[in-house]
Every structure is written in structure tokens, then in C-alpha cells.
Amino acid sequence: MATRWIPLVLLFATIIINLAEANVPAIFVFGDSTADVGTNTLLPGSLARADFPHNGIDFPYSRPTGRFSNGLNSADFLAKLMGYKRSPPPFLSLGNIKSPLKRNFRGINFASGGSGILDKTGNSVLTSFGKESNPSSNYSANQKNVISLADQIQQFSVVYTYLEAIMGTVAKNKFLSKSLFIISVGSNDIFGYYHSDSSLTKKEFLSSLVLTYGNHLKSLLNLGARKIGIVSVPPIGCCPSQRIFNATGGCLEELNDHARTFHAMINMELDKLSSEFKDMKYSLGNAVEMTLNVIENPYPFNFKEVKAACCGAGTFNAESFCTPNASLCLNRKEYLFWDLFHPTQAASKLAALTLYGGEPRFVAPINFSQLASR
Ligand SMILES: *C1O[C@H](CO)[C@@H](O)[C@H](O)[C@H]1NC(C)=O
Ligand SMILES: *[C@@H]1O[C@H](CO)[C@@H](O)[C@H](O)[C@H]1NC(C)=O
Ligand SMILES: *[C@@H]1O[C@H](CO)[C@@H](O)[C@H](O)[C@H]1NC(C)=O
Ligand SMILES: *[C@@H]1O[C@H](CO)[C@@H](O)[C@H](O)[C@H]1NC(C)=O
After folding, report:
1. Which of 159, 211, 276, 318 would bridge with 340, disulfide CB 3.0–4.6 Å?
2. Which domains does the chain have, with CATH numbers?
């Protein structure tokens, strides 16, 4: 009797595996702390890090991994939706990258907290990164504070070279054209501009920012990327760290305006790029719409606190970073913000679900699930 069940069990196992199987061969993640899964912990000189409690309190074994979150971030949840356990590992954790590329290779995360579209963003501790162009160099032995988007793409080009060597040109091109490239960046550039005494007007600054972003995207396209999922800048004026600058505790509207304009401009840039690269497909997540939609009406999403950070100190828990002695909220699931800048695991999950299956108001011209399956 019992043996009759075996084929059925196997059938179910097959179905589950097929359902859980990623519909993209690999995921490559680029960007800032919203997507960093440990890059900065591998930069000895970096000050932009989260590899200490209470960060990671909801990660398995309450392990602080370098994610700026109580648990997983949006890159993790997007990867989960594609059938992964969580985000692929940080590039810097791969050491000699030849061996991981041979085993069941599923992608790499290059994102670095504090980084931006502009090389100078986040790099107050600037030193040369000269070893980078040599594939056999020790990547963790540099002194950078953060890894800029340009440097992340440079690191990807090293991977590209290995893929070419291992797979050959045709297979590598096919593999990369089906892989998903996720990019979440721009907030730190806008913070940098806003809190500096730059002589550039808003329009001048954002134009040059988007021009630079477009050039980075072109580099990725020239390195074989064809499915690009972009998350625009959230309403960063609503971060607890910025609300403390508004006497009424409201959002800093000017910063949110910058984020809106950035989205509109990057939307045009992507439209332009897709006429230049005919086989390119993209999704642009509107992080302003997605986030304000929750802030303005939090209860249906099970959030009760959308202003204060869960972990921190002082007004809105936003006068200190989330350190081991910071005060921690009781119900982390009810908070939109984990620390003074970053979303909680619950908020990141909601963001990923919206990017994956959301309507055009939140993600356009197609959502991430459509991007992955085309
Ligand atoms: C986006 O995602 C789902 C699939 O996950 C798809 O069925 C749906 O049509 C898309 N939503 C919209 C509104 O485009
Ligand atoms: C790489 O650099 C780190 C930090 O300087 C060092 O601890 C490690 O041993 C180096 N690894 C190799 C393979 O040289
Ligand atoms: C501060 O918040 C209020 C809403 O509470 C808003 O009307 C106002 O524009 C904000 N001030 C600034 C400087 O952004
Ligand atoms: C935590 O401790 C550090 C160093 O001991 C101190 O500088 C910081 O102000 C403390 N933070 C809080 C939130 O108490």
C-alpha cells in the first residue's frame, strides 16, 4: 500500500520545486542600504554599517548581517518572490569568485549602504580603488567607506568576464539577457545635495544625477543586462531623521518633491534607453506613490506607527542610529521605519510585493513578475 503513495509524493515534490524555481536564471542587485546584504561589513574602513544589534533581531538566530533592517530587506523579498531563499550573497563575500561561479550560480548582490549614483556620494573616506580592475586582487582589502554604483558595475564587469570564460559568448549573452538586474539607489545623492550648500539649482542637480544614472544603465546594458527593475527614490522627507527638522513633525516636503521629480526624470530616461536598446525590458517602481499610500492610510496594511523609528533614541527615535543600547519598540511589525532612515522588514516585504505584482500606479510599464517572466 505504502509504495503506491511514493509517485504521488514525488509528483508533489516536483510541483513544489517547479513552483519555487526562479523564473530568472540569476539576480544581480545594485544600489544602497535599501538592498545591501552585507557588502559594507566586508569593507574594513566603512562607517556605513549595520552589523551589530539590534539590527537583524528578526533575522534567523537574530544575526546582524549588515542589513539595515530588523530582518530581511526588499532585495531579499524580491528574490524570495523569484523562488530564492533570500538575496544572492554580497560580491565581496565571494572571495576568489571563480569557484562560486562554477557551482549552481544564481546571482550576486553588489549593493553598498550609503552609496549613490554619484561617485562622491557616501565616500567621505575617499581612497583609490585601484586593485579593483585586477580580478585576482583581494577585494576586501580596500579602504572605501562605500562602493559607488560605478564601482559596483565595475565589479559586475569582473563577473561578466568570468561568465564569458566559463560559458562562452553565446550562452553568457543568453544567461544575462534572462537575468534580472535590480537597482535601488538615489536617496543618498539627494540627501547629499539637500544638506549641502550646493550652488546647483534643483533642476541642474537632478538633470546631472539622472544623466549619470542613464550612463550607468548604459554600461549595464552594454554588459548584457536586458531585464532591469528599478526602484526610484522613496519620499525621503518622511524618514524619521528628516521629520525632526519639521517643527510640526510632518515630512520635509522639498525632499519629497526632489524624489517625485527624480522619478519623473528617470522614467523619461528609461523610455529613451528602451528605444535605443530594442530588446530591453524594464520596470520602474514608484517608491513615492508606494510609500505615501501606506503613510496616508496605514491601518489596512497593519501598520500603526509610520512616523517614529522602531530602533533609536530621542524625538521619533531618530536622534541616534540603531545601536546595541538604543531603545527598541515592542511590536516591530507595526512600524514602517526600523531606524532613522530604513524601513522595517514588514515594510520591505510590502514594498517587494507591490513591486512584484502591483498595478501601474506603483510600478510601470510592467511589474516585476511580468519583467521576470518575459
Ligand atoms: C502584475 O503582476 C501580476 C502577476 O503577478 C499580473 O497578473 C498583473 O496583471 C500585473 N498587475 C497589473 C495591474 O499590471
Ligand atoms: C584579504 O584582506 C583581508 C583584510 O585585509 C585579510 O584579512 C585577508 O586575509 C585577505 N585575504 C586574502 C585571500 O589575501
Ligand atoms: C512640515 O509638515 C507640514 C505638515 O505637517 C507641512 O505642511 C509643511 O510643508 C512641512 N514643512 C516643510 C518645511 O516641509
Ligand atoms: C549608546 O552608547 C554609545 C557609546 O557608549 C553612546 O555614544 C550613545 O549615545 C548611546 N546611545 C544611546 C541611544 O543611548
Report:
1. 318
2. 2-134+141-305+351-373 (3.40.50)
